[in-house]
Here is the input.
Amino acid sequence: MNILNIKDISVCYGDIQVLWDISLSVTSGQIVALLGTNGAGKTTTLKTICGLLPSVSGQIDFEGKAISGFPVHDITNLGITLVPEGRQLFPKMNVEENLLIGSYLRRTHEHRARNLKTVYELFPRLAERKNQTAETLSGGEQQMVAIGRALMQNPKLIMFDEPSLGLSPILVQEVFRVIQELHGQGLTIFLVEQNVHQTLKIADYCYVLENGRVVKEGAGKDMEQDTAIREAYLGF
Amino acid sequence: MELLPQALIDGLLIGGIYITIAIGFSLAYGVMHIIDFAVGEWIMLGAFLGYYLNLWSALDPFILLPAVFLAFFLIGYLIQPLVYRVISGKKGNPVLMGLVFTFGLGLMFRGSALTGFGFYSHSIPSAISQNSFFLEMGGMFITIPYVRLAGLLYALAVTMVLHFVLKKTNFGRAVRALSQHREASGLMGINAKRISSYVYGIYVGISAMTGVIIGSIFTINAQMGGEYSILAFFIVVLAGMGYLPGVPWASFLLGLVQSFFLIYLNPSYTLMAVFGILFTILLISPKGLFGRGV
Here is the structure.
């Protein structure tokens, strides 16, 4: 069953078109990845799904319901959560407040205490630093807060925008471990990455984006074997 | 020397009122990035509502505060979408658009008030207006009018309630989130338009209540707004644009400067001194007293 269906969406920044008839779908309970180089349109795709950018044509369905044109806060309320590029934490708030703002929506209130406990179990580091303001955290810790904040929202679909960006190799491993753990708990994950090697290892299905178009798609394992892909898009 | 305690007390009492002149203004700037030059006019309109309600009902102005707040909260809440449209338009510089729009709004309010309420000054009599509290300590006399003390207590109460709401409630966290990172707050499910409307309502409501307090301490008239707009602007810049915790300190500093000038030097130079200090502080720390402004 597809939780998210995107059909032929095009997106423009002013007069410049950046996405051309993108179609993709995310199956419930899977990790689906979107790969591509800088400027391919990966972040734009995510922002369009979230309602941060309008699409000029095409349709986005979430759980069988058309959501194109909805404001971002309504889409969030339906259960789509984005862990944005560059974490985008609330810099002057402490760790705990950043997590609590994740459960701003009324539907998440009843799970707040339990979710907070889960997040602190997943990232014991955050429990130690819960009174520290977000701007004073290291990049890795900030990424943990961003993921924790997303989990506080009780998402049905969690989307990651380059979660490994700017992290040390050990922390990259850690982030991918967490993503797999969330997947193991039954969460549906849409992962946007440039770290092709790591991503293909955990993704069930994969799309490759180039210059605003989907140029290739297939199961993660097939992609890794595909020599043409390796040479043309993945660079190894 | 015997005037020193009185100067200090006066400064704190007047500074307290300044907190509530500026705190809503600072909050609205933090969330909506609007410099609302109608702030003084909201104070004036609130003062006149208090004045007429007092005439009509003979209730003490301090008892009328909740009613004034509610009325102006509603006005602010309803007018905010219009302000939002102006400052989020695609054309023009949004900060400048906000300035011009609120300046025009203020002019309209002042003009209408002159027509509607007349030119004369009024005061809003409170039961405690006449009495003062006298202290004598080793030859030093301190006078504290009850109504000024009540004004200070009102200001502290507003500040503490606001602090509590912003720190401890879901709504308050949403307000802070919105002022710190607009896009991310949308991803948290926060409805920016609705929260901004509430914030604008709260700001207009606090300003209007402060007008009533001013009316029971000093006098009010249809042209009082400009002076308070300047004061609010001064305090917010001194505190750091949008940096709320700086507002009480900047207000007390301004109050003390004023009272010392009034008592020891020439009162006519007060405003000059105030701007001299603002100028100096901004030279040293362009982001306000605490370096935490925008």
Q: What stands out?
A: Residues 94 and 133 of chain A are 4 Å apart (CA to CA). Strands of chain A lie at 2-13, 16-27, 31-35, 57-62, 65-66, 80-83, 157-161, 188-193, 205-210, 213-219.
